Each structure stands twice: as structure tokens, then as C-alpha cells.
Amino acid sequence: MAPACRILLISGSLRAASTNTAMLRTACADARGAVEAVLYDGLGELPHFNPDDDPDGGPVPPAVAELRAQIAACDALLLCTPEYAGTLPGSFKNLLDWTVGGGETYGMPVGWVDVSGLGRGVGAHDCLRSVLTYTGTDIVEAACMRMPVQRGAVGADGLIGDLVVRDVAAAALAALAARVAAGAPD
Questions:
Q1: DSSP 8-class letter at 61
Q2: What is the pLDDT of residues 37-57, one digit of tens each?
Q3: pTM confidence score
């Protein structure tokens, strides 16, 4: 039996030891019941966004086609991104730019988990909210959470063992699944 809700998890970090990616890996490992969580791993493969490479109805670069196919095959998105220079990292903003032309995220439930330390990450998440609003996503406030994670909390397996952190990841997935089950808001 197929899960009732497929959620694509996208990290905004290219860092191998990223706490953002570890949070999403942990959410993916803990997904249960009606939720299937899939971790996107093609951020570093995306070409620089150029509108000339995204013609209406025309072919796009293969890595972009794969990103769009993965988004189209899911019911919701869970994001986790660091802040860099007061805003989104360039590679993650590039990914978001590629989602504009395809329209796959329009009306899609989206949430994010902020793992930054206190006083950090605000600029990135303000920018993220702005971009996601522009692209017409359904920002699920109950799936937008803050749970600071220290690098030392990530185990050798790339997962976070702290049960409180794991509960936050599970709650974000559950909030997205609930929105998907309820349908689009009025």
C-alpha cells in the first residue's frame, strides 16, 4: 500500500557535515505510517539559473528536469537551510529560482525547520518566506519550526540522536501530512 503523503526534503546546504542535512536525514529515517519522506540530493548538480535555459514548454537541463520531477511526484516539501551573509545560500536560492518556471510548487504545502543557533537564520527564513510566497506555495505555519542543533549532536551515521530534535522533525512531517490530508486551505 502506497503512503498517503510523500514529502520531499530539501537541504539548502552543500556542506558534507551540515546540521541542516542531518536534520532532514533524521526526519527521513523517522518517517512512519502514512508519510514517505524522500531526501533530495541534487543541489550541487543544478546549473546556474538562466531564464534562457528555461523556455516556456521547452527542454531544461537534465538536473533541473530531475528536480522538477521529484517535486511533482511529492505532496509537500520540508526545507532546512542555513543562513549565509544574512540571506539564503546562493546554491539554495538557485534551486528555488529553478522552481519558478516549472510551477510544480504552486499550491504545494511547504514547511521548514531552522536548526541555526539563537539569533541566527532570521534573514534566510525571511527570504525563504518571501520566495515561497512569490511562487504560490502553501506555507504551513505548523510545519515551520525552530530547533537549534549543534554540530556535535550529529552522530557518525549522519543522524541526530536527541529525541527532542527528532520529535520536532516528526512534528514538521506530521503537520505537512495533515495539511495534505485536509486539502488546500480556503
A1: -
A2: 999 999 999 999 999 999 988
A3: 0.94
